[in-house]
Amino acid sequence: MTATSIVPRFYLYGEPHRAAIGRFVHVESLDDRSRPSEWTIRPHAHAELNHLFHIREGGGSMRADHRQISFEAPCLIIVPAGMVHGFAWTSDSTGSVITVSSAYLGRLTECDEAIGALFHLVGVATLDGEGSDTFGSATTTLMEELAWSLPGHHAAVEALLLGLCVRAVRARGLGEEGDDHPMRGSQIALVARLRERIEACFRLREPIAGYAIALNASETRLREACARIAGQSPMQMLDERAMLEAQRALLYSNLSVAQIAETLGFADAAYFSRFFSRHAGMPPRAYRDRIS
Fold first, then answer.
1. Which end of the chain is less enclosed by CB atoms within 10 A, N or C?
2. pLDDT tens digits, 64-87
3. What CATH homologous superfamily does 3-172 map to?
4. 74 cis-preceded (ω within 30 degrees of 0)
């Protein structure tokens, strides 16, 4: 049992969970689900769906795993698949939310690796008034295109979605330095593949050498790519993912520390407690009491 099996999992918010089709994309007004819920969206997760919120007016706060993030319009909010998140909106909030399947994002990432990087971490990107208006107009056009099926429908949807993702990448300031350099492009791709591998295998606690072999890269090349693109070592990225899952379990489940250690691949609960204390600055039980 994991933390995300305790937290409600939805397809779209309030809808029973099911597998997302490969090219799934959905756009709706912000208040379509928020107003009936009295502007409060309780913590939940989506297994295969990523969100890109555009906040035109208003603001609020977001619960993102163990963090509380405040935001004000105009801005964009990026929520990756698997992230436990919830919202408390101000009642004057307006905007839209674009939901994209992870499989479809993989297709878009083939056009530019920075799009994949956009959805690796939760984040808020500030927009100016003109940028917000432009983003809103493009989102409206995408919503209209999704409402009918004329010749060229799929190409139009993909072009509009790709353009919106590029605007989000630029608003978030990703990949500003020398993205056209072939070495950087290959490093972005390698780090993206490493993140996918970590997501699939972090509970196995494999050594970094095993990740390098699986990715057909030397450990040196892997370390250099991670340092340049992620600003971390591969081991730091692996530990960060394990810590995130540990924090989710402590926050959103009643699993004991020993049970959490076992689900994360730690054979010894005492070693897991030392690992957690080293990264969080306090033991797991103290973290649960303090954050809860």
1. C
2. 887 889 999 999 999 988 888 899
3. Regulatory protein AraC (2.60.120.280)
4. yes
